[in-house]
Every structure is written in structure tokens, then in C-alpha cells.
């Protein structure tokens, strides 16, 4: 199967861990949280219980820092059988505010890539998480103006992508999604018949990981540093997408 | 100044406390929260401190149940100087989950009003709050299909309305917003030169209240029960908007 990059007119970028660092902020907060609970339980136990509570709570709270914070609080209460103190929970609240005000650190070459693509392609951001938090990060990123449209969704399903394409009158054959998460940015986009370019991030939240690699039917780029390769690829009349670019 | 209702082609409805009951859920949760803290402080003190924390936290957490829950937890910790127990905070977490799964109770005549307007007008929902929570309420409301477009925003500013109108190629003179909050649904819409119809709800969150009524330049309807009056009003060639309909 080959896909044609020559047809691409719209390029949508995931935001967290594609345009800017994000997972590191969660990893750091999680480490602080584990330190807080070390007097009660060992690291692995805390880590795995937090992961369970988080996944269970996605249906209630969705993605984002507020839901993550509520899950940390719930985990702390459960793992201490209610013995956690108000002051310790106060520290978790402080972690949340710290996460929300973390500086937005663009990944290497993002600004350069966007400048190169602007004018040639219609550029979108498609991101999931808390509305206010994602808007605030975009505003602080300094790159919001480079995009024609910003779409913040609660979950990146095939259906969510289809609705976005429909809303903006984009044909699947003209659409490319670029992102770090196979589960959110790549597989649902391939499912609707559009194209996707995977740029792995050095760490990906376990929940976002896909273990079935038998369907490796998307191209991959090591990082946005490789802008020349991205641009080359976009100009190719057709591309064998079984083969990773790098 | 008169406005012409005859030009209206698009009608946007606020959701919380316009299409379905919402503030009651917050009031109930707040009462439970106050009961929880009564062993530490008197009712008025808890109530006013929670309101302060909530307003202060809007910049971090935005509108919605998750932010409200984090504010309840923060208030509980502050007012007990950290003496609140893990089990008591667990009760606050349970309040949150209870709020999130509350049944969506449509206000009287909503379904009838929407049926009467459908086909004649382009119908939108414009609501603010948590993305997942608002989507979930719309899905559970049973009326989502009656709307052409759903817009969930982090804050209802004049700028937010302007962006929505621009995105959907709606001219201000053809746009009517219907809602219960002067601050969110009426004043910013009048500011951009569009029209707004106020349907007060029996209780409005203090933060949403506007005290400067000197600019009463919008029509008001006692409830959506008055559908005939709404439809009559929409068919009038011009309307003196200094005068409330009811």
C-alpha cells in the first residue's frame, strides 16, 4: 500500500509532546507525588495504583491536569486508608497549580517547521485535554497565530477526526495528522482513511501506548529536527508507508 | 433603539440553566460540603470562603465541576488548617462523581421550543465549562441532534462570540443568543452588536451576576414556557428592546 503525500493540503499537529514538552511535567509531578506517599507505601505500589485510578477516572474526568490531580488525591486517600493529612493533600494541590503554570517549552525546530509550511498548507492544531489549559498553553506558546484553526477535543477518536474534517470541509485524501501518540494521533486517523506521520516522543504515557505493532502502516520521523525530510516527503508523488522515513 | 427580530437566522442557546438544570446540582453539592465543615466553622464563613477560593481559582481551573471540586478541597484544607481528614476529603471526591453523573433534566418546554424552531432557524448551543462534562450532558440530554453546531468554550467573552460567528460565517445582525446569565449570555453578545434574549433562572451563581442594570437594553422572557411569545417576537419586524416581553 502506498499513500500519496502530493495530495496533502491540510496538516494538523498534535500539541502535547509534538509541539511542546508535556509528559515531562506529568512525570515530574508523579515523582513528587510518589515521594509524598513513600512513608506509607513503596514506589512501585504507589505508581501502579495511581495508574489504575487514573484510567478508571478517565470516564469521569477526561484527560488533563485537573483530572490527574483529582486522581492523585483519590489515590492518596485510598492508599493511606484515609490517614493522609490535609497538609499532604495541600501539597498535591500545589503540584497541580505548578503544573498548570509550567512554562510552555517548544520542541526543537517547531517554529522553523511551521514557518516553512505556512502559506503552503492549511495548518491545524488538534489536541485533547482541558479546554482552558490547552488554550492557555497555546497562548503562551507564541505559535498560535501560525495555525488556521485550533481544535480541542475531549478524546481523539476516529469519530472526532471525522467531525473536524467535515466541519472544515477537508477531504480525507488531503489530510495529514502529525503526532507522537499512536493511539490518539495515528491509528484513528488511518482508520478514517487519512494520512498520519508518527514522531515518537522519548516518553509516552502508558495508557497512550499501543502494543500491536503488526499494523505498522504509517511513516515515522525521529523528530521535527528532520524538517528537510518532512518537506521532501511531502513533495514526493507517492510514498511507501511500510518503510519508516528514518 | 430598536432591534429587528425579523433578521434573525441563527439562534444559539446557552445550555446550563437555559436548556437543563445545572445550578441546583452545584447548590446541592455546596450544601453537603458546608455540612461536612460545620464541625469546624459556621455556615456563612464556609460559604463565603468557598466563593472566594472558587473565584480566585477560575484563572487556574476554569469553569466546571472538576475546578469546583478542587476549590472545595482547597477550602476544606485552608479552613481546617490542614486538620481535615483523608476520609472527609474522600466525601468531597464522592460529591464530584455524583455531580458528574447527575441526570440531565431538561427545563420545561425546551424540547417543544426546539422542535418549533428547527428548520426555520440554524440552531446552536454555546456553553462553557469542562469539555467532557458538557459533551456528556449533551449526549444524555437527548436533544443534541436538534442542533446544527455545538460550541464549548472556556469563557463566554465578546471575543469568544466573535470567533464563533466568524467560524460559521454568521453575521451579527442575523444572530440571537438565548440564555440565563447576563454576564455570559447577554452583555458580551450585545457588545458585538448581536441580539440577546434573557431568560432568568431562579438561581444564578453570584459570580455570574451583574449588578449594573442601568443598561437594560435586552428583552427578557420569564421562561421557555412562553414559546408563543418567543415565536411572536421572532416574527415581529422590529422590537423595542427597552421593554421586557414579560
TrEMBL record, chains A, B:
User: Keywords of this protein's UniProt record, alphabetized?
Assistant: Hydrolase
The name of this protein is: HAD family hydrolase
Lineage summary: Bacteria, Pseudomonadati, Pseudomonadota, Gammaproteobacteria, Oceanospirillales
> InterPro entries per the record?
HAD-like_sf, HAD_sf, PGP-like_dom2, S-2-haloacid_dehalogenase
Cite a single GO MF annotation: hydrolase activity
Highest taxon of the source? Bacteria
Amino acid at each position: 500500500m502506498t499513500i500519496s503525500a502530493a495530495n496533502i493540503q491540510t496538516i494538523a499537529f498534535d500539541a502535547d509532546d509534538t509541539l511542546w514538552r508535556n509528559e515531562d511535567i506529568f512525570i515530574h509531578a508523579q515523582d513528587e507525588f510518589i515521594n509524598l506517599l513513600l512513608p506509607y507505601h513503596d514506589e512501585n505500589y504507589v505508581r501502579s495504583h495511581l495508574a489504575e485510578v487514573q484510567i478508571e477516572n478517565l470516564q469521569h474526568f477526561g484527560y488533563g491536569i485537573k483530572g490527574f490531580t483529582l486522581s492523585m488525591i483519590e489515590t492518596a486517600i485510598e492508599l493511606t486508608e484515609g490517614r493522609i493529612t490535609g497538609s499532604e493533600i495541600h501539597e498535591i494541590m500545589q503540584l497541580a497549580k505548578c503544573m498548570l503554570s509550567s512554562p510552555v517549552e517548544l520542541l526543537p525546530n517547531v517554529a522553523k517547521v511551521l514557518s516553512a509550511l505556512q502559506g503552503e498548507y492549511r495548518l491545524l492544531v488538534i489536541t485533547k485535554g482541558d479546554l482552558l489549559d490547552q488554550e492557555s498553553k497555546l497562548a503562551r506558546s507564541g505559535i498560535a497565530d501560525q495555525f488556521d484553526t485550533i481544535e480541542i477535543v475531549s478524546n481523539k477518536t476516529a469519530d472526532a477526526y471525522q467531525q473536524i474534517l467535515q466541519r472544515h470541509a477537508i477531504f480525507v485524501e488531503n489530510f495529514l495528522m502529525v503526532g507522537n501518540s499512536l493511539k490518539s494521533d495515528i491509528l484513528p486517523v488511518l482508520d478514517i482513511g487519512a494520512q498520519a506521520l508518527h514522531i515518537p516522543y522519548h516518553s509516552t504515557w502508558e495508557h497512550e501506548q499501543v502494543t500491536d505493532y503488526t499494523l505498522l502502516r504509517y511513516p515515522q520521523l525521529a523528530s521535527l529536527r528532520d524538517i528537510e525530510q518532512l518537506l521532501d516527503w511531502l513533495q514526493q508523488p507517492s510514498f511507501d508507508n511500510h518503510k519508516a522515513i528514518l
